[in-house]
Amino acid sequence: MNYRHVYHAGNFADVLKHLVLARVVRYLQRKEKPFRILDTHAGCGRYDLTGEKAQRTGEWREGIGRLMTADLPAKPAELAAPYLDVVRGMNPTGAIEAYPGSPLLARRLMRTQDRLSAIELHPEDFAELQTLFDGDHHVRTTKLDGFLALGGHVPFKERRGLVLIDPPFEDTGEVTRMLDGVARALRRFPGGTYCLWYPLKTGEPARGLVEGVRRLAPKEALRCELSVRTRAKGLDGSGLLVVNPPFVLAEELGVLLPAIVPLLAQDETAGWRVEELVTSR
Ligand code: SAM
């Protein structure tokens, strides 16, 4: 396990993922009924952007750094507000020094009736995650293989909720494990919303993932992507496949992403996509 998210926290890929996460949470909160969030690859939860590791790559400067200093038009600003307000709340002086990982963002958006299960396998990241949520009765942290959690942690007793699956894509086997895990989880919890993150390298998603999700034949699935550049190798953008998306998500992202792409663009190939991958309508 070589991957450490602290080198990448707040980068352009986190921006897309966390915007989508916040929109799904806000949608779930349209009803008073409680829900649960299962974060299968949670990371350590809070990132110090002034620390040596985050400073070494400085990736956050081209992600949240650009977004926080930009003036968004009214509608995209309203849609981005739940996410950006959490980041602002962690940086009260205005200088961007700290960034919320997905479990902390989720926690800050949750109401008293909502719950979070955060799974992490890396011993150091897990230790930080555990300390962050120590004594918080709304959050359960578990040191476990996140793909296994997709079997054991669903369905939720709340019967509603969101599963975020955000592995590091360190090896090719992860696509298969992701698809097998989601297939298993969907059989046990067909009504859940599942967000599967993936990297875009030379413009292409991880091989087999998009077709694999289509083959799972969910009722609805949305594909959204944001790319900032095209290079011969490395991460140029990222995407999320959202199985059972909120019905408003495609429209919301159709407003948000075109406003955000010009802010994050690093060359003229930057772009976005929102596509109904599977629809029953
Ligand atoms: N979701 C986090 C966020 O948005 O802030 C970032 C997660 S990072 C991309 C992936 C995380 O998965 C890393 O912290 C890594 O240690 C962890 N990890 C790697 N393999 C794992 C596994 N099999 N099960 C659970 N966690 C794993």
From TrEMBL:
<comment type="function">
    <text>Specifically methylates the adenine in position 2030 of 23S rRNA.</text>
</comment>
<feature type="binding site">
    <location>
        <position position="102"/>
    </location>
    <ligand>
        <name>S-adenosyl-L-methionine</name>
    </ligand>
</feature>
<dbReference type="Pfam" id="PF04378">
    <property type="entry name" value="RsmJ"/>
</dbReference>
<dbReference type="GO" id="GO:0070475">
    <property type="term" value="P:rRNA base methylation"/>
</dbReference>
<feature type="binding site">
    <location>
        <begin position="145"/>
        <end position="146"/>
    </location>
    <ligand>
        <name>S-adenosyl-L-methionine</name>
    </ligand>
</feature>
<dbReference type="GO" id="GO:0005829">
    <property type="term" value="C:cytosol"/>
</dbReference>
<dbReference type="GO" id="GO:0003723">
    <property type="term" value="F:RNA binding"/>
</dbReference>
<feature type="binding site">
    <location>
        <position position="166"/>
    </location>
    <ligand>
        <name>S-adenosyl-L-methionine</name>
    </ligand>
</feature>
<comment type="subunit">
    <text>Monomer.</text>
</comment>
<feature type="active site" description="Proton acceptor">
    <location>
        <position position="166"/>
    </location>
</feature>
<feature type="binding site">
    <location>
        <position position="41"/>
    </location>
    <ligand>
        <name>S-adenosyl-L-methionine</name>
    </ligand>
</feature>
<feature type="site" description="Interaction with substrate rRNA">
    <location>
        <position position="3"/>
    </location>
</feature>
<keyword id="KW-0808">Transferase</keyword>
<dbReference type="InterPro" id="IPR029063">
    <property type="entry name" value="SAM-dependent_MTases_sf"/>
</dbReference>
<keyword id="KW-0698">rRNA processing</keyword>
<keyword id="KW-0489">Methyltransferase</keyword>
<protein>
    <recommendedName>
        <fullName>Ribosomal RNA large subunit methyltransferase J</fullName>
        <ecNumber>2.1.1.266</ecNumber>
    </recommendedName>
</protein>
<keyword id="KW-0949">S-adenosyl-L-methionine</keyword>
<feature type="binding site">
    <location>
        <position position="18"/>
    </location>
    <ligand>
        <name>S-adenosyl-L-methionine</name>
    </ligand>
</feature>
<keyword id="KW-0694">RNA-binding</keyword>
<feature type="binding site">
    <location>
        <position position="120"/>
    </location>
    <ligand>
        <name>S-adenosyl-L-methionine</name>
    </ligand>
</feature>
<dbReference type="InterPro" id="IPR007473">
    <property type="entry name" value="RlmJ"/>
</dbReference>
<dbReference type="GO" id="GO:0036307">
    <property type="term" value="F:23S rRNA (adenine(2030)-N(6))-methyltransferase activity"/>
</dbReference>
<comment type="similarity">
    <text>Belongs to the RlmJ family.</text>
</comment>
